[in-house]
Amino acid sequence: MAFSNLTDRLQGTFKKLRGEAQITEDNIKDSVREVKRALLEADVNFNVVREFVAKTQEKALGEEVLLSVRPGEQFVKIVHDNLQEILGGETATFDLPEERRNVILLLGLQGSGKTTFSAKLSKYWKERELRPMLVACDVYRPAAIEQLKVVGGQVDVPVFSIPGSQDVVEIGRQAMDFARRENRNLIIFDTAGRLHIDEVKMDELIALRDFIKPSYTFLVADAMTGQDAVNSAEAFNSQVGIDGVCLSKLDGDARGGAALSIKNVTGKPIVFASTGEKLDELELFHPDRMASRILGMGDVLTLVETAQKAFDEKQAADAMKMKNRLMRGEFDFEDFLQQMSMIGRMGSLSKIMKMIPGLSGALSDEDLHQGEGELKRVKRIINSMTPKERRNPQLLAGSRKLRIAKGASVEVSEINDLIKQFNTMRKQMSMMMNTPQAKEAFGGGGGSKFTKATKESRDRKKKKKKQQRDQRKKRK
Amino acid sequence: MAEEKNGLLSKLSQKLFKPKTVVREVRRLAGLKSKVDADFLDEMEDILIHGDVGVETTQKIIEFIRKDPRTHKETDPHIIVDLMYDAMFEIFQQDERKLAFGPQKPYVVLVVGVNGTGKTTTIGKMALELTNQGKEVLLIAADTFRAAAVEQLGIWANRTGCGLVMRPEGSDPASVCYDGLTCADAKYADVILIDTAGRLHTKIDLMEELKKIDRVIKKVMPGAPHETLLVLDATTGQNAINQAKIFNEAVNVTGIVMTKYDGTAKGGIIVAVRDIFKIPILKVGVGEGAEDLRDFEPQEFVDALFAE
Fold first, then answer.
1. Are strands B281-285 and B107-112 parallel, antiparallel or unpaired?
2. Hey, of B11, B39, B59, B115, which one would you mutate to test binding to chain A, going by the most A CBs within 10 A of its CB?
3. Which of B7, B30, B84, B245 is deepest in the core (most CB within 10 A)?
4. Residues 6+ apart with CB under 8 A from A328
5. Distance from CA of B221 to the nearest CA of A (A)
6. Is this complex's ipTM strictly greater than 0.85?
7. Percent of chain A at pLDDT above 90?
8. Nearest to B170 by CA among B132, B121, B209, B139
9. Mind listing the pLDDT tens digit for each residue in A75-106?
10. CA of A258: which chain B residue's CA is closest?
11. Nearest of A103, A92, A457 to residue A288 by alpha carbon
12. How far is the C-alpha of A261 from the C-alpha of A267, rounded, in Å?
């Protein structure tokens, strides 16, 4: 339990609740306490938790829960709504007109990831038809300017710096001149990491702000920060003023986090989420999705959206065809491969698994990593088959297997394993697809077709047997 | 020197490790309540967690207090403060030691941690301390991933006059370590400090890379690394426990360096990490200055916690 994350903890709580027919005052108190503990364990700020718990309790003990038919779900909803409220309603939008010189100021504690983030941000807006440039105002950390130049080069965005200068206002002044000369309409200032209690450095930041007059000032905050996150955010906000927060290192396993309560304390939205070391791994932050994710309802919204992107219309038609084939039990290696590539387009296995409710905790990162390797191997094997073999798996005999094994650089036994797995899967699939529930889910109608389907398959079996009989006769 | 000592003490009691406020909170609570009961302990649990002490360790401390016969005998809740002192001091007493940089020569120190905790800066500060003591130090720049990380270490090498082994960005970090440990300078060095790229403990490939670095070091120089330091950011919350767990599983961490302790972070997670993994805290970073990397003093530390 010690290392479980917020989602797991909350899922545990709800599992307990779902077992109850009715929520009593007593068991709600227990769960509220567990929710509170879970939130604290996930680094949500103490005061935010207290407020949250008070609100949840108030609502949960009200009539609506006691009168509702399924109290467990009702409670999930209350927790979810309250969480979402803390995370802050809508997704943020920006106003960065092309004809103006837009200025963005980035600030934060040491090591929160400002330099990497500034490059990501410049790439983000470059792709949205702005002409960004980066300004190196970290005059303290050794090689910080060098670092910005390198990442700026990687995203092909000009980097302005004055080697040896310690005067950030002067750097700001010359950078604005540079922007005018080079016709840049987005100027992103990367500043040195500083403690919010370091008065000299805070003053420096204020002087820079007053000179460059940023359109937006973003605080870059580490998603792993503990209880102190609100203190630094509050200080930066009250002294310099921020318009939004960018969460970095969200690809780690500290995804609940006190950083979320920054929103509650500063009133400023969390705008961006940094989800990897590559310079294109930057996403707009979706508070509603985060609330769902924390609740263990899975990031269903994200999953749906990514799935939508991956499927185009043609593929939707293909999927329909495949559905029909599945129902008839005619699933072959071609379908298998197509399905795998569809999933592949949605992102890595681990990313997808984390979005699916109930699965986030079931598999460790190591399992997923192994699974990904396995998938690649399977893909290699299928790709080494001829189209004919893929459509007719029963063709796969000794010499063909040997050829495929060579092509995919695997052992023949691995191919045998795959075929065995494939056959069981095919059997299971046609069984599954022919249940009334599946038919309903896939728009196949009610349970009445159940008998028809089984009759169809019975007919097919008869046909097959007849064919086999004929073949035997021929051999004779 | 006396002044320096005072400086540290006051830094410790003023800024470092805010559970001093935890103690104040508990005292406030004791003033409100007339006896130690379940509610009191529940309330205390929250206060400790608020200090980032960590849920598991908090429960352990509460359990320690609950079991102590004094808790039930005494009607004065102020006894709790004494009991907390005992509980925390016990945690810090186990296997406490100092970072000695010897007796082996060269003494190889591998520095690891997640992104942005201050690994390179910590190495720079250690290099300065060691060269001031007249020791020969060699730096190995095995962070070949982050842009300009090698340059950053290079600047520290220039400042301190240490040798530096470096390869172009993108080189295999394990091979940089191999080159560093087999080069001629390595034979004359008293201490070799190896800087690695920051990596999130959840990235399996990067953790495998780290294991490879460790394997190569062990192979080239049996007995090395003599010290594997995990650098933790004091502002980190519960995630520090995960970090310590996974890094320790990967490369067997022998000591912890807590950085950025001069902020307002309560940094109580240090108690939890110390308690769960029994890994000693060896250094504490209390400022940006090169001399602001101090030895961790548990006695002073716990005293500072409970000083009024």
1. unpaired
2. B115
3. B84
4. A430, A456, A457, A460
5. 30
6. no
7. 22
8. B209
9. 656 676 777 777 765 566 778 888 888 999 99
10. B237
11. A92
12. 9
Of the pLDDT bands very low, low, confident and very high (cuts 50, 70, 90), residue B52 is: confident
Residue B124: its chain A contacts at CB < 8 A?
142
CB–CB contact A110 B116 (8 Å): yes
3-state secondary structure of B183: coil
Which run of H or E residues covers position B110?
strand B107-112
Residue A418 CA to residue A71 CA, distance in Å, equals 45
Query: A164: helix, coil or strand?
Result: coil
A141 contact residues in B (CB cutoff 8 A): 121, 152
For chain B, state the CA radius of gyration: 21
What architecture (CATH level 2) is domain A305-449? Answer: Orthogonal Bundle (1.10)
Q: What is the mean pLDDT of residues A381-410?
A: 85
A222 and B156 within 8 Å at the Cβ level: the answer is: no
Long-range CB pairs of A48-52 (<8 Å, 24+ gap) are A48/A86, A48/A230, A48/A261, A48/A264, A48/A265, A51/A264, A52/A82, A52/A83, A52/A86
Q: How far is A329 from chain B (nearest CA, A)?
A: 38
Q: Helix or strand or coil: residue B140?
A: strand
Nearest chain A residue to B245, by CA? A3
Measured between beta carbons, the chain B residues lying within 8 angstroms of A143 are 148-149, 151-152, 154-155
Please write the tens of the pLDDT for every residue from A44-59.
777 787 887 777 777 7
Structure tokens at A347: 């992102």
Chain-wide mean pLDDT for chain B?
A: 82
Please provide residue A107's backbone torsions phi and psi, each rounded to the nearest 5 degrees. -145, 165
Counting beta carbons within 10 angstroms of the beta carbon of residue A66, is it exposed (0 to 12), middle (13 to 18) or buried (19 or more)? middle
- Please, what is the average pLDDT of chain A? 74
| Residue corresponding to tokens 């990596």 | B199
Subunit contact A224:B236, Cβ cutoff 8 A: yes
pLDDT digits (tens, 9 = 90+) for B174-232: 999 999 999 888 888 999 999 999 999 988 899 999 999 999 999 999 988 999 999 99
Question: Residues A120, A124, A128, CA angle at the centre, nearest 5°?
Answer: 165
Please say if the pLDDT value at position A355 is more than 70. Answer: no
Q: Is the pLDDT of residue A396 over 60?
A: yes
Decide if B239 and A254 are in contact by the 8 Å CB cutoff. yes
CATH node for A102-297? 3.40.50.300
Measured between its terminal Cα atoms, the distance across chain A in Å is 67
Query: How many Cα atoms are found within 13 Å in the side-chain-facing hemisphere of B137?
Result: 25
Determine the CATH number of domain A4-86.
Answer: 1.20.120.140
Do the chains contact at B148 and A146, CB–CB below 8 Å? yes
**Looking at residue A1, what DSSP letter applies?**
-
β partners of residue B167: none
Burial (Cβ within 10 Å: 0-12, 13-18, ≥19) of residue A104: buried
Partner-chain contact A150 B148, CB within 8 Å: yes
In chain A, where are the structural domains located? Answer: 4-86, 102-297, 305-449
Which residues on chain B are in Cβ contact (under 8 Å) with A229? Answer: 235, 237
- Provide the pLDDT for residue A305: 40
Q: Position A350: which residue type?
A: S
